[in-house]
Amino acid sequence: MELVQQVTSHNSQETRLIHMAVATTIATAANRKLSILRPHLRTPRYATSNPITHFRHHHLTHNVCVDDVHVKPHLLLLPPRAFTVDLIQDAGASLLVVSGAYALVSGFDNLTRRQIVEQNLSRKLVHILSGLLYMGCWPIFSTSTEARYFAALVPLLNCVRLLVHGLSLVTNEDLINSVTREGKPEELLRGPLYYVLMLILCSILFWRESPVGVVSLSMMCGGDGIADIMGRRFGIHKIPYNKHKSWVGSISMFIVGFLISIGMLYYFSKFGYFELDWAWTIERVALVAMMATVVESLPTKGGLDDNVSVPLVSMVTAYLSFGFQP
């Protein structure tokens, strides 16, 4: 009986040893297989739940501190996304305004050639509309500090164009007929050139955040432009101190210049560029319009051009009234 028990115990021990050996063999094989797969399953040292953060960490830095080995990072200077968006917006806006200005002048050239609109009227309508439409396009530019310079590119291109044709380097009869009084190329270097220079000055110096530039351009474009149209058609009664100017022209300049200035100020205020006390603003704009009208009526034959005197006087008066807000 004891012998049977000893044999049974011995067989149990052998069975346990066999089971342990089989288990060890299976575990060894599993560990070997896992060691092969571990490099593929292991989480990276700089893994993150945000793939964008991981991308920036991997691409914006190089040779960072790893395992107590520290090397200075090298940053790649990438332009901010907001800057790129503003750049595209301003470039597109400039291109759009240039195209619009070219279309405006070409349209009136066509009307003049067909004798639908007489030359002097066409010239003054271009004078009025080009500046006001240019200023009205300022809100489509971005809010970046460089936006004003992109806007100034539009009159700058026109400035170069006037210089090229005014110096007779290139001939363009349509342009000359549309913006000059007597159809002479050298006239492009006077009134039309002063006009675009004032657009550049107001764009860079004042821009859309200041009522000074808005009022000054409104008086030069709208006020001075309508004075010539009304004076030529209805100017029977001349001003005593200047036989080349009429009461109708001066009164029209004051009224239309005042109304356009108020309208443009309201237009820009609706975009939030400035806030105004309108009772106070109306008084100041009326003062600016009066000063500009008086200067425009003065005899300046062979002297200072209206495209210089009117906006400059308007700037000074508006500056003293509203204050400088660059």
SSE diagram, text form:
Blueprint: H1 2-41, H2 51-60, H3 81-113, H4 119-136, H5 147-166, H6 173-179, H7 191-205, H8 211-234, E1 238-239, E2 242-246, H9 247-270, H10 278-297, H11 306-322
Antiparallel strand pairs: 1-2
Structure description:
It is a multi-pass membrane protein. Its EC number is 2.7.1.182. There is one protein chain. By secondary structure, the protein is an all-alpha fold. It has two domains: 86-205, no CATH class; 208-326, no CATH class. The chain has eleven helices and two strands; from the N terminus they run ααααααααββααα. The protein has helices at 2-41, 51-60, 81-113, 119-136, 147-166, 173-179, 191-205, 211-234, 247-270, 278-297, 306-322, and strands at residues 238-239, 242-246. Strands 1-2 form a two-stranded antiparallel ribbon. A hairpin with a 2-residue loop joins strand 1 and strand 2. The longest helix has 40 residues, at 2-41. The model is unreliable at 1-8 and 33-76 (pLDDT under 50).
Q: In percent terms, what proportion of residues is strand?
A: under 5%
Largest sheet: 2 strands, antiparallel
Taken in chain order, the helices and strands follow as HHHHHHHHEEHHH
Any low-confidence stretches, pLDDT <50, length ≥5?
A: 1-8, 33-76
Number of strands: 2
- Briefly note the structural class of the backbone: mainly alpha
Distance N to C terminus: 115 Å
Number of helices: 11
Mean pLDDT: 81
Order of strands in the sheet with the most strands? 1-2
- Coarse morphology: globular
Helical residues, percent: 55-70%
CA radius of gyration: 39 Å
Number of domains: 2
Transmembrane segments: 247-268
Subcellular location: Plastid, Chloroplast membrane
Keywords: Chloroplast, Kinase, Membrane, Plastid, Transferase, Transit peptide, Transmembrane, Transmembrane helix
GO cellular component, one term: chloroplast
